[in-house]
Design goal:
By secondary structure, the protein is an alpha/beta fold. The protein is 35% helix and 25% strand. It is globular, with a radius of gyration of 13 Å.
Amino acid sequence: MTTDATPTRVFIIEDEFMLVMLLEELLPTLGYEVAGTAASLDQALGQLPALDTDMAVVDVNLAGTESFPVADALRERGIPFLFTTGYGQHGLPERFADTPVLAKPFRRHDIEAALARLHASR
């Protein structure tokens, strides 16, 4: 949970509608604010320039398209992020070897701990 007076804003980049809904409900209970959501690479890249966000949760596979271009854009802006994937660290390009990965399916405790670590690294 965050301890700042202003909640940390999290951008959710995920194509599974039910998971987006779950995160939109869960994050505020953990002290985070949802900055926005995107279900595709194009949506994420389109929203990012004007979005006020502190961190991001990025699904590696967005309806069959890899999300690495949005991860590159987040990194360029200095926005910390973590990947979510059912495939583990193995499918990530070398440039993301140091990026935290949250394995799907995850539980509340898993996302809470992962976001706390990401928040602490900012």
